[in-house]
Amino acid sequence: MKISQEEIKKIALLSRLEVKEEHMAHVEKELSDILSYVAELDALELDGVEPMAHAVPLHNVLREDEMKPSLDHDLALSNAPEAEDGYFKVPRVVQE
């Protein structure tokens, strides 16, 4: 399938892309190749083919949600530059 340079200019304008004249022949070939491939795909008989989200079936890809002991409070605060009343102390970011 062939695409014209005028169509490329219109698509470039609509998509806010700059296609320089020296690159126009290359872009024309690339887009024509893409459209030809899409036309080949469109010609395939796909009745009865179930849509899929992934090419390889995935099962149990998530780990089990298990409770584990958390970091000790005092150990976590030991790495803080400043702590106050058992909490991390940080600089104020919202002025009153």
UniProtKB/TrEMBL annotation:
<comment type="subunit">
    <text>Heterotrimer of A, B and C subunits.</text>
</comment>
<dbReference type="Pfam" id="PF02686">
    <property type="entry name" value="GatC"/>
</dbReference>
<dbReference type="InterPro" id="IPR003837">
    <property type="entry name" value="GatC"/>
</dbReference>
<keyword id="KW-0547">Nucleotide-binding</keyword>
<keyword id="KW-0648">Protein biosynthesis</keyword>
<keyword id="KW-0436">Ligase</keyword>
<protein>
    <recommendedName>
        <fullName>Aspartyl/glutamyl-tRNA(Asn/Gln) amidotransferase subunit C</fullName>
        <ecNumber>6.3.5.-</ecNumber>
    </recommendedName>
</protein>
<comment type="function">
    <text>Allows the formation of correctly charged Asn-tRNA(Asn) or Gln-tRNA(Gln) through the transamidation of misacylated Asp-tRNA(Asn) or Glu-tRNA(Gln) in organisms which lack either or both of asparaginyl-tRNA or glutaminyl-tRNA synthetases. The reaction takes place in the presence of glutamine and ATP through an activated phospho-Asp-tRNA(Asn) or phospho-Glu-tRNA(Gln).</text>
</comment>
<dbReference type="InterPro" id="IPR036113">
    <property type="entry name" value="Asp/Glu-ADT_sf_sub_c"/>
</dbReference>
<keyword id="KW-0067">ATP-binding</keyword>
<comment type="similarity">
    <text>Belongs to the GatC family.</text>
</comment>
